[in-house]
# Entry
Amino acid sequence: MNAEEESLLITAARAGGVRAMYDLSLQSDDPYEREYWLRQAAEKGYLPAMFRYALECGNPVDRRHWLKEAAEEGVVAAMYHFGLESDALDTRTRWLTRAADSGYLPAMHALAMECADGHERRCWLDKAAGEGYVPAMYALAMACDDASKRKRWLIEAAANGLEAAIKELGNLEEVPDGS
# Structure
């Protein structure tokens, strides 16, 4: 960005333009200036700024506050992060479910890992793995009793570069042939 463009952006941000504030935060190399503009945009209700500020701020209380604000406004990734960081199981499950129901693959996987019910766990893993979420492919493989399905999901996860799946697949193929 040249000096004239930066000057226009600063003018727009000082006039209350939340997108300009957000853009300034993304452009800044100065961490204090970056945080300042990001927080300004978040406080004015700009959803991308709320979520990014939550992820970047060092204060855990502020982080939870902004994650909750963004989640309540419908930011699916914020629902996921807020759910993961919730200590209360019912809150955790509620927010992970909302994110998973919205199609957020990491939330489907996380929710599956929370499920005590094996059928429900497998349903979430099947859905996330079927949509291409590699960690769910691996988790599904490790939960499979059927050797051919297990191998299929391990091959799929390994083909997507997951080291644990590659190693596990190697272990399967090292089974002695009995001679």
Q: What stands out?
A: The two ends are 69 Å apart (CA to CA). The CA atoms of residues 108 and 118 lie 14 Å apart.
